[in-house]
Amino acid sequence: MKPIITLPALLAVLAVLVLAGCRGIPTRGERQARHEFGAVASQYRPGQHKPQLPVPTSDAGLSNFLAYALLNSPNVEAAYDDWAASVENITVERSLPDPQITFQSDIMEVVNTVMPGFMQEFPGPGKLRARSAVASAESRAKYFAFENAALQTAFDLKQAYYKLYFLDEQLRINRQTLSLLNELERVARAQNEAGRVTLQDVLRDQIERDRVRTDIANLVDLRQPMLASFKAALGLMPGQPNPPVPTRLETTAINPDSDELLRIAFARNPQLKAMKADVRATEAGIALAYKQRVPDFSLGLMADAKAQPTMFRPLAGMTLPIWRDKTAAEIAQAKANELAAKARLSAAQIQLTVDFAEQTFAYRELGRNLDLLENQLLPKARQSLEIARAGYLAGTIDFFNLMDTERTLLNFQLAEVEARTQREIVLSRLSLLIVGEPPAATGLFLDSGTGRSASTQISKQEMP
Fold first, then answer.
1. pLDDT digits 0-9 by tens, 259-273
2. Which of 137, 176, 234, 450 is 20 to 30 A from 341 (CA-CA)?
3. Tell me, what DSSP letter sits at residue 434?
4. What are the angstrom distances between the C-alpha of 403 and each of 62, 185, 203?
């Protein structure tokens, strides 16, 4: 029996196998995206594995906890994986469709022809490049989403850290006040035993002391949800042990009144950058929509394995983009997407300006309040308490005025702690979420150039 597969057919099969291992030509955008992804991956997931996490201890600086959070946060990891998928999608979009192996046979009473073949589709000129441009811009937007997720995680950690730190300050103040009230009760009892005051003074002190004790219990209880927020910001699961809390306060030194800082915010803010990338993606989408007017082509070759000599049958095809209303709709859709993306960018720029103005006002207001509390109200309240205490012992001031003076001092102390807490949170929001300044020593963000100029206005300070 004569073999069905002849030499030409065998060569055709080998050609298919060779072509199956071919690689396309990367576009410039694809090469850049892979280079940038590799630079971040070498720090964030070297060897596609989570790196050794720093060991957080109470003596470690805040930067140690920030590095831990950024490397361990599931939100950051999800944004990173989305970015990784978008980089791979560039290769998918710029590649030719998979070739096809075809087979055709003429059969009457017997098999007359056996014709294996090979078919390849070729999108119209410029289509693959346009698709690659769209995918590259979308990948760029995904990177900035990753950057934004990292900044949000850093902000969540710093916010939880400041609240925990200043909660401990509130506990310290209330416990000092409780100690003061215990001393005042002894004074009131002594005055009562000497017949100078009634037992009412002792009862008033006990009422105030019970109130402060309740405040202390509430603050101790509040520490648990705050610690849970701190733990969540570190990316720790509920079943894992609670992390230690830094004992040193690190503040953010920043000049939020500077017009230069707002300019840096417009240049660095990752949400704005993502929206700008979306605009570029829609612009590339318009170019791709216009390419739909161009027909696609297909070429193929079949060989009759039974014919002697071998008969070849070339194949060629071309799509006919005759549905003009469909093409016009695709172009109109792409243009509408571009207008929408630009409008969202403009809205975000306006909102960024508003947010910057609100946060800088809050910073200035908190600064004025702190100055008033630290330099005016607190010194005078302490002096007033000493005078009231001496006056009570001398019998010139009643216990009600003494307690009112003590309560005023306590309120001023707690207000000072609250103002310091809010100021640090405002500074963190400005530096991380609005300005987009990456946390120091993380190495996860691409160097955009503007970060170097921003670092002259934003720095870390460590305080005991």
1. 888 999 999 999 999
2. 450
3. I
4. 40, 11, 12
Q: Give, in order, the Cα–Cα distances in Å from 79 to each of 31, 112, 160, 237.
A: 21, 59, 22, 19
pLDDT number for residue 245: 86
3-state class (DSSP) for residue 460: strand
Handedness of CA 224, 230, 232, 234 (dihedral sign): negative
**Statement: residue 2 has pLDDT above 80:** no
Structure-block tokens of residue 81: 């994986």
Quick one: residue 458, left, alpha or beta (phi over 0 = left, psi -120 to 50 = alpha)?
A: beta
pLDDT for 62-90, tens place per residue? 888 999 999 999 999 999 999 999 999 99
Q: Look up residue 244 and give its DSSP letter.
A: P
Cβ atoms of 154 and 460 closer than 8 Å:
no
* Closest residue by Cα to residue 104 from 286, 302, 241, 298: 302
Measured CA distances, 159 to 62, 206, 429 (Å)? 12, 36, 9
Where are the chain's structural domains? 7-295+308-438
Cα–Cα distance between 41 and 35 in angstroms, integer? 10
Q: 461 by DSSP, 3-state: which? A: strand
CA dihedral 408, 409, 411, 414 (to 10 degrees): 180
